[in-house]
Amino acid sequence: MKWHKIKVTQDITKPFITKEKIGGKSLCIVGFENKLYAVSAKCPHAGADLSEGLCVRKLIVCPYHRYTYDLETGKGGEGQHDFIETYPVEIRDDGVYIGVNSVWDKLKLGFK
Ligand code: FES
Protein backbone atom coordinates (compact mmCIF):
# COMPACT_ATOMS: atom_id res chain seq x y z
CA MET A 1 0.00 0.00 0.00
CA LYS A 2 1.24 3.43 -0.87
CA TRP A 3 0.43 6.40 1.37
CA HIS A 4 -0.33 9.71 -0.30
CA LYS A 5 -0.11 12.98 1.58
CA ILE A 6 -3.03 15.31 0.93
CA LYS A 7 -3.75 18.87 1.90
CA VAL A 8 -6.90 19.39 3.95
CA THR A 9 -7.79 23.05 4.32
CA GLN A 10 -11.38 22.58 5.43
CA ASP A 11 -12.54 22.79 9.03
CA ILE A 12 -13.15 19.14 9.98
CA THR A 13 -15.62 20.11 12.67
CA LYS A 14 -18.05 20.92 9.84
CA PRO A 15 -19.22 18.40 7.20
CA PHE A 16 -17.57 18.67 3.79
CA ILE A 17 -16.88 16.57 0.69
CA THR A 18 -14.07 17.27 -1.74
CA LYS A 19 -12.78 15.29 -4.70
CA GLU A 20 -9.10 14.45 -5.08
CA LYS A 21 -7.13 12.44 -7.61
CA ILE A 22 -4.96 10.12 -5.50
CA GLY A 23 -2.89 7.25 -6.82
CA GLY A 24 -4.69 7.46 -10.16
CA LYS A 25 -8.12 7.16 -8.52
CA SER A 26 -10.84 9.75 -7.98
CA LEU A 27 -11.65 9.79 -4.31
CA CYS A 28 -14.02 11.71 -2.11
CA ILE A 29 -12.40 13.10 1.01
CA VAL A 30 -15.17 13.52 3.53
CA GLY A 31 -15.06 15.36 6.81
CA PHE A 32 -17.83 14.43 9.18
CA GLU A 33 -18.08 14.83 12.96
CA ASN A 34 -14.35 15.54 13.40
CA LYS A 35 -13.27 12.51 11.36
CA LEU A 36 -11.89 12.17 7.86
CA TYR A 37 -12.92 9.44 5.42
CA ALA A 38 -11.73 8.56 1.93
CA VAL A 39 -14.08 6.70 -0.41
CA SER A 40 -14.44 6.11 -4.14
CA ALA A 41 -15.95 9.13 -5.92
CA LYS A 42 -17.91 7.06 -8.46
CA CYS A 43 -21.34 5.76 -7.53
CA PRO A 44 -21.62 2.07 -8.51
CA HIS A 45 -25.30 2.45 -9.39
CA ALA A 46 -25.01 4.65 -12.49
CA GLY A 47 -21.68 6.41 -12.17
CA ALA A 48 -22.64 9.71 -10.54
CA ASP A 49 -19.98 11.81 -8.90
CA LEU A 50 -20.43 11.22 -5.17
CA SER A 51 -18.47 14.39 -4.36
CA GLU A 52 -21.58 16.28 -5.51
CA GLY A 53 -23.70 14.41 -2.97
CA LEU A 54 -24.10 15.08 0.68
CA CYS A 55 -23.24 13.61 4.01
CA VAL A 56 -25.90 12.45 6.47
CA ARG A 57 -25.27 10.42 9.65
CA LYS A 58 -21.93 8.89 8.53
CA LEU A 59 -23.42 8.11 5.10
CA ILE A 60 -22.55 9.63 1.74
CA VAL A 61 -25.70 10.21 -0.32
CA CYS A 62 -25.51 10.03 -4.12
CA PRO A 63 -26.80 13.17 -5.87
CA TYR A 64 -28.60 11.22 -8.63
CA HIS A 65 -30.90 8.62 -7.09
CA ARG A 66 -30.10 9.09 -3.39
CA TYR A 67 -28.46 5.72 -2.81
CA THR A 68 -26.44 5.79 0.41
CA TYR A 69 -23.05 4.34 1.34
CA ASP A 70 -21.50 3.92 4.76
CA LEU A 71 -18.38 6.10 5.04
CA GLU A 72 -16.50 3.53 7.15
CA THR A 73 -17.39 0.26 5.42
CA GLY A 74 -18.51 1.45 1.96
CA LYS A 75 -21.56 -0.79 2.27
CA GLY A 76 -24.64 0.32 0.36
CA GLY A 77 -27.95 0.91 2.07
CA GLU A 78 -30.51 -1.81 2.65
CA GLY A 79 -31.66 -3.41 -0.60
CA GLN A 80 -28.95 -1.81 -2.74
CA HIS A 81 -26.62 -4.84 -2.85
CA ASP A 82 -23.60 -2.74 -3.74
CA PHE A 83 -20.69 -0.91 -2.14
CA ILE A 84 -18.02 1.70 -2.73
CA GLU A 85 -14.34 1.29 -1.97
CA THR A 86 -13.04 2.82 1.22
CA TYR A 87 -9.43 3.87 1.85
CA PRO A 88 -7.55 4.21 5.14
CA VAL A 89 -6.87 7.72 6.42
CA GLU A 90 -4.06 8.53 8.83
CA ILE A 91 -3.55 11.86 10.50
CA ARG A 92 0.18 12.12 11.20
CA ASP A 93 2.27 14.90 12.73
CA ASP A 94 3.16 16.22 9.27
CA GLY A 95 -0.24 15.92 7.61
CA VAL A 96 -3.06 13.70 6.38
CA TYR A 97 -2.29 10.52 4.43
CA ILE A 98 -4.54 8.27 2.35
CA GLY A 99 -3.55 4.65 1.73
CA VAL A 100 -4.18 3.30 -1.76
CA ASN A 101 -3.44 -0.23 -2.92
CA SER A 102 -2.03 -0.64 -6.41
CA VAL A 103 -3.31 -3.38 -8.71
CA TRP A 104 -0.19 -5.35 -7.77
CA ASP A 105 -0.96 -4.94 -4.03
CA LYS A 106 -4.49 -6.23 -4.64
CA LEU A 107 -3.19 -9.26 -6.53
CA LYS A 108 -0.78 -10.03 -3.67
CA LEU A 109 -3.63 -9.74 -1.16
CA GLY A 110 -5.71 -12.11 -3.27
CA PHE A 111 -3.08 -14.84 -2.86
CA LYS A 112 -2.92 -14.62 0.93
S1 FES B 1 -26.07 7.01 -9.76
FE1 FES B 1 -25.82 7.01 -7.64
S2 FES B 1 -27.71 6.30 -6.93
FE2 FES B 1 -27.93 6.21 -9.04
Description:
There is one protein chain. The protein has 112 residues and is mainly beta. It has one domain (8-89): Rieske Iron-sulfur Protein. 7% of the residues lie in helices and 42% in strands. It has 1 helix and 10 strands. It has one helix at 103-110; strands at 2-6, 16-22, 25-32, 35-40, 54-56, 59-61, 68-70, 86-87, 89-92, 95-100. The strands form 3 sheets. The chain has a 4-stranded antiparallel β-sheet with strand order 2-3-4-8, with no helix packed on it. The protein has a 3-stranded antiparallel β-sheet with strand order 1-10-9, with no helix packed on it. Strand 2 (16-22) and strand 3 (25-32) form a beta hairpin. The longest helix has 8 residues, at 103-110. It starts with a strand and ends with a helix. The mean pLDDT is 94. FE2/S2 (inorganic) cluster binds next to loops.
Briefly say what this structure is.
The protein is 7% helix and 42% strand. With 112 residues, it is mainly beta. The protein is globular.
Keywords:
single chain; 112 residues; mainly beta; Rieske Iron-sulfur Protein; three-stranded antiparallel beta sheet; 1 helix; 7% helix; binds FE2/S2 (inorganic) cluster
